[in-house]
Amino acid sequence: MLPVVVRSCFFMDRYCLTSIVYTQENDQDRGEGPDGMDSTYWEDLEPGDAAPESSFPISWRTLMIELVATGDFMPYHYHPTYAQSLGMRGTFVNTPFYLCLFSRNVTDWLGPDCDVRSAILQMLNQTVPGDVLRFSGRVTEKWEANGDCLVRLELALAHDLGVAATVNFVVAVPSRAHGRVQLRELPPMPEEILDPAMPDAARDLLGKKVVRQAPYPVSEAVIRHFAEMTRDENPLYADTDYARASRHGDMIAPLTGLTSLAVNAATQIGVDTDFPDPDLPDQPAWPFAIEKNQILNIRLPGTKDIIVQTTLQEYRIGWKRGDRVIETAQLINCSGQKQTRRGPGYFMKFLREFHNDKGELVGRATMTTLNY
User: Fold this and answer.
1) Can you give the residue range of the structural domain that contains 83?
2) Global confidence as pTM
3) Mean pLDDT of the region 234-243
4) What are residue 139's phi and psi, to 5 degrees?
C-alpha cells in the first residue's frame, strides 16, 4: 500500500493549515462497477483528464459538525477571539476535515469502488467560515503495481485569497480486466538508519513504546458525522446493503479519518491540556486523568516548542462501529542539532500504529517534528 503524506505546520499554540478538495459530475464513461455501484474504470482514465470543477462553501454549521466528528476541540477551531489573538483570520477547519473532503471528491468522481492509497497534502492558507473553496485538478499518471490499478491526481483548491491547498493523490481504481479493488496489507516498515549525531536524551527513548486507548469506541453516529461534515454520500459510510457486501464487510469511517478517532475526550483537548478551556483558565481538564503521550510531547534539553514538519499516513482498513482504537507510539529516530529558521533544533521522527481491539492493524502514521 502506498502512503499518505500530510504536510502541515502545527505549532503547540496554533495550527497553520488550510485546504480541501472538491469534485462534481464527470463526463467520462461510467458503468456498474464490480461492487454493483456506478464506477469509473481504470481503463477509461488517461493522463491529462481534467477533474470536474466545483465549489464548496464553509459555514459555521460546517465547522460545528467537523468538531463533533473529529473531536478536535483545540480552541482555534471554535473560538474566534482566541484564533484572532494568534493573528489568524478566525477559526478554521482542521486537517482531518481536509483529508475527508479530498476523499469525498475522489469517490464522487471515480465512484465508491475506489480506495485511497496515498496523498501528499500541502496546506498554504487557512479556510474560515465564509470562504468558498473552488476545486480543480487532473490525472497525471496511471500504472499497475502489486495488484492495484492506480492513478495519480494533482488537485488544487482556491478561495478569494488565492490557493488554499494542493494535493497529490494516488487512488486504486476498479478495472475491467482485473476486477474490484482489494484491501491490501501494509508493507513492512523500511529499515531506519539512525542518525549518528542523535543526542543521548533522544537515544535513551528509542524503542520505548507508549500505548493508549481512545476513551470511546467508534460509533455509528461518529461515522455518520464524518460523512455529514463533508456531505459525503459514499454508501460505505452508512448501514447499507452496499457497505455490508463491500470489500470492507460493514460500514466504515473514511480511511482518511485514521488518527481522528484516537483523540482524547473533548474536555481534555486544548493548548494547555491541564487547563484546556481558554475561557475558564482555572478549570482543570475533566472528568478523568488526562491522557498525555509523553513520547510525542517530549522536549529535548535546550528546546521548548514543537512544530510538525510532515506526517506520513498509511491506510489498511477502515474503522468500524464498535472498534476500540488502540494507539502505540514510539520515537524511531532523531537528528543531531540543526540550524533552522526557528533557531537551533532537532528533527524527531515518531511511529504511530493504530490497531482495533481485535488486534488488527488499521493504519499507521510516521511523523517528523522539529523540536526547537
Assistant:
1) 4-371
2) 0.86
3) 96
4) -80, 135
